[in-house]
Amino acid sequence: MRNLLQDRWQKLPEAAVRRLQAEQLRQYLRRAVLPFSSYYREVFRARNLNYDSIRTLEDLQKLPFTTKADLLNTPERQQRAKDFILIPDEKTLARRPSTILRALWRGRNRVKQEFEAEFRPIFVTFTTGRSAEPTPFFYTQRDLDNLASAARRIVEVATARPDDRLLSTLPFAPHLAFWLTHYAGTAAGVMLLSSGGGKVMGTEGNLRLIRTLKPNVIIGMPTFIYHLMQQAADEGARCKNLRALVLAGEKVSEGLREKLRALAAELGAPNLQVLATYGFTEAKQAWTECPFPPDQAPSGYHLYPDLCVIEVTDPKTGEQVPSGQPGELVFTPLDARGSVVLRYRTGDFIDGGLTYETCPYCGRCAPRLVGNISRRSEIKEMNLDKIKGTLVDFNELEHVLDDSKTIGSWQIELRKVKDDPLELDELILHVQKVNNTDEKLVSRELNQRCVSRLEIQPNRILFHSADEMRQLQGVGTLLKEQKLVDNRPSAKPIPQVSATPPQAMQADKLQPEIGG
Ligand SMILES: [Zn+2]
Question: Cα–Cα distance between 420 and 424 in angstroms, integer?
Answer without folding.
Answer: 8
